[in-house]
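Q: Can I see a sequence and its folded structure?
A: Here is a first one.
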Amino acid sequence: MHAYRTHTCADLTSQNVGETVRLSGWVHRIRDHGGVLFIDLRDHYGITQVLCDPDSPVFDAVEKVRSEWCIRIDGEVKARDASLINPKLPTGEIEVFVRDMEVLGAAEELPLIVFGDQEYPEETRLRYRYLDLRREAMQRNMTLRSDVVASIRKRMWDSGFREYQTPIITASSPEGARDFLVPSRLHPGKFYALPQAPQQFKQLIMVSGFDKYFQIAPCFRDEDPRADRSPTDFYQLDMEMSFVSQQDVFDTIQPVMQGVFEEFGGGRKVDAEWPQISYRDSALWYGTDKPDLRNPIKMQIVSEHFRGSGFAIFAKLLEQEGTEIRAIPAPTGGSRKFCDRMNAFAQKEGLPGMGYIFWREGENGMEAAGPLAKNIGPERTEAIRQQLDLGVGDAAFFLGGKPSSFETVAGKARVVIGNELGLTDENRFAFAWIVDFPMYEADEETGAVDFSHNPFSMPQGGMDALQGDPLNVLGYQYDLACNGYELVSGAIRNHKPEIMFKAFELAGYGEDEVRKRFGGMVNAFRFGAPPHGGCAAGIDRMVMLLADTANIREIIMFPMNQRAEDLMMNAPSDPTSDQLMELHLRVIPQDD
């Protein structure tokens, strides 16, 4: 007999009745029924009920067992009485009578209970992550993650891609976040960087003639944490292709992503139509570049209905350059109570409030109500209603000013309205490509122009596009949004040195600096670089959506906390004096 088990805790059925078996696992739950001890024995695969009564030679030893002890048992498989069968368990038809037991690992008093769904502070869960991971939900999440990665790999191989590995220790590169720097012992005073992404290397793979590359790539960014973002590292499906257009990339990655979501989405609908929405339209309609299309609400510009109107706040606002009024339609939201609640929401978000109009049945038919309706009059109110295609029982909310001042709040309000009014289809994955990103943006205070997205993207129109106003230049850059999250980001790359130098020049980087920072790639492009493009899909966020959680730490095996600390391994930690001397470094104490 095997030293630890003949079967897993999910294997035994009525076919095994009468057999002598050996199982190993953790004590999930103990029940004492009048001197008969029932133990739910758990391993990674499932649960088997084992029992022990005073006739067992190891009854006294079994009495001492406590939750989460790791034990081995030998016993005889017995059929349960028909009334005691548990249809929820694969092993629910049988139980094992214990004849022998060995304690493989005793457990002290537990800082968190594995059995059940008790909530614990995140600090406790992360400090004792190895216990937290024993819980059923966490086992399910980590298994899901592993299965998703395996599925992605198979789908990429089936699409003609091969997986290649790129360096983990490399040079610093501006990818939009801070690098993690690694001091060099052999080159005092110089530093490597952990890659924010394999961006340059995957482009060099295309220059090397490999045509189709992918990698499940670890990426490292020193970022401020959010619920949907790790503060240190994450994994992405990284891919690149030669001789492709933007549409070719879309046509390649959609079957992979759609197939994964259909396979692991738990029966939720996966949209087959993925609209392509310009960055400008996405900001206007949804207030974000990662819209949740499960929510049907589209915002609209309604400035003309307020220009010169009796609502002085909006009328005067529209006299200023660059301002507009946007409406957020709210079908079925036509009650003063709901409107007041949304107005309070806007105030909590830092705005003075949101104007609103709602439509109801009046003495003479449909009438508009609310302060705005009284100020602008029935003709303008009716024109707004018709433009927004609203009716009795509906409402509309209004925000005004320069879009940059209210767009984010408008986007959040759209989400809240959709959720509270039950307009958002929760049982669905809705995808959209966001395209035509601006290549550059201007600092609001200094006016300085810098890249707004990936600096290695090809501008639409090539060199000719870079001769005018940089703020009008669009890039072949694209994101894939799903249910309000950015899942994929990519671009057709700038593979021509002369266009690259000009693009960086407009952002304030001289040719010498470009050669210094990206010399490897610039030099490679001198020797017959093919047109190429690709994208990267965030595996952590994909699994987060599939697991139906809004917290990315629920699907990462050993995540950092919100302060980028590993409470279990005590990282970051203080270096020793010897380590600092070897690296020619000195730590300057910080004032408290």
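Q: Show me another, different protein.
A: A second, unrelated one:
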Amino acid sequence: MNKYRTHNCLELSEKDINKSVHLSGWLHRKRDHGNLLFIDLRDHYGMTQCVIENKNNFFPILEKTKPESVLKISGKVVKRSVGTENLDLKTGKIEISIQSVEILSNAKELPMPVFGEQDYPEEIRLKYRYLDLRREEMHKNIILRSKVISFIRTEMLKLGFLEYQTPILTSSSPEGARDFLVPSRLNPGKFYALPQAPQQFKQLIMVSGFDKYFQIAPCFRDEDARADRSPGEFYQLDLEMSFVEQEDVFNVVEKLMVNLFKNFSTKKLMKENFPRITYYDAMRNYGTDKPDLRNPLIIHDITNIFKRDEVKFDIFKKLVKSGSIVRAIVTKKTKDKPRSFFDNIDKWAKEEGASGLAYFTFEQDKEIKGKGPVGKFFAEESLKEIMKICKAEIGDSIFMACGKQKDIEKILSLARDKIAKDLDLVKKDQFAFCWIVDYPMYEFDENSKKIIFSHNPFSMPQGNIKDLNFDEPLNIKAYQYDIVCNGVELSSGAIRNHIPELMYKLFSIAGYSENDVNEKFSGMINAFNYGAPPHGGIAPGIDRIVMLLAGKENIREITLFPMNQNAQDLMMQAPSEVNEDQLKELSIKKNIKKN
């Protein structure tokens, strides 16, 4: 028999009454009633209440023992008296009458309590992460993460995929975020890079003749932290398939996601067949390629209205003449909202760096009018046309913004979320997935004034290769796609370019010579010369999936040992200094300039 416990702290019930048991765990909480001391004992599985009388020799020991000390408690299972049951606990109808106690490990005064779920500063939580992880909600989140990964593995095997591991030490990539570099002792002056993703390796697995690959892959990127992105490292479900088209990848991922989200959440799926939205439509209708479809608001283009003579809104008319666009959001049945609602939206937009949002409400007396600061500038015919374009009705209101396309997309995407939140329009009990498809192969970078890849440089362009017009690269679309859920991008993916000659051509448009491609992607481009199958894949982020299932908005809440915003591990004090002997062995000399 195990010397520490006969049962865990979730197992005991009324059927165990009068049994002698041993339990081990952490002293979660104690309540001193004078002649009785109640102890809540907690382990990984749950909680059991224990009680000791003041005549017991161990009573004074427990009185002095601090919370989070580790105890072994021996005693008898007894029924709780009527009225003292705790039906919120699985063990809430029984308690342990303590006969003896062994202190396995004493705890010092805690820097943060484990009992209770109140929030604490990030610095304290990360420095004492092992205490933070003992808290019930955090503990459940990490268990959820483990179960999700286990479920994914099982489902992927059912779908005919096999798991393979790719290298952690690899070569640096010129695309994407900054690499984490690892100096090579055996090759002085040269460096490995930790993989930003197993992109090239998983494609090489397909070239090697394996048909369906997956991996719960660690990825490393030296980029700034965000609420939905950890600095340094993250995990993704990396998958690749041979002899597939875009829809084949979609079918696999949709089956997985539907089963996964149904299994781990009581929230409904808005649609089990995920909508396909083109990149163009996403940017036009939502202002973003990460739309939250739980939000019913749509952005409408009303630029042409401001070319009409009867429209007297001169500020917008002048901007439109110089090339600006006007887009708008309609809110249904908001005529009775106070003026402060509209003014607050306008004020918020200015705080976001925009020039504000013009607004008015559609009213009808003898004729249709616009009620609000700028409504008087629109004649009835113009208002009717706006209502037709925006599918608006009398009693609805409209918010408008005018400017350059990218600026308008940005502010109205944010405004769409802000207005929906203020009006409580978002369906919080649902998961709304969608695919964003038909990404442009290239985009024009305003900073460098050059054409660059818009997404994944290894993607296959759409259309007949012989008919592609490489002289107008900004018109070329790629078989690139994102999967989005509730406004969170879970992953990007693509059907890959497996034709060397085409790869050289596509890279040349982005400014890479044939030698550049041979040097930077030598392993892959060489392999493609020996017979490569058409293939494609995707890599949904594990962290973001769990974050959605747990109902959290920060990735820190579902990660065991995350870094802080400055990419520091406060618990392990990393990154840290290393001694000169280590640097010398790696042929590295520090040259740090002081500010």
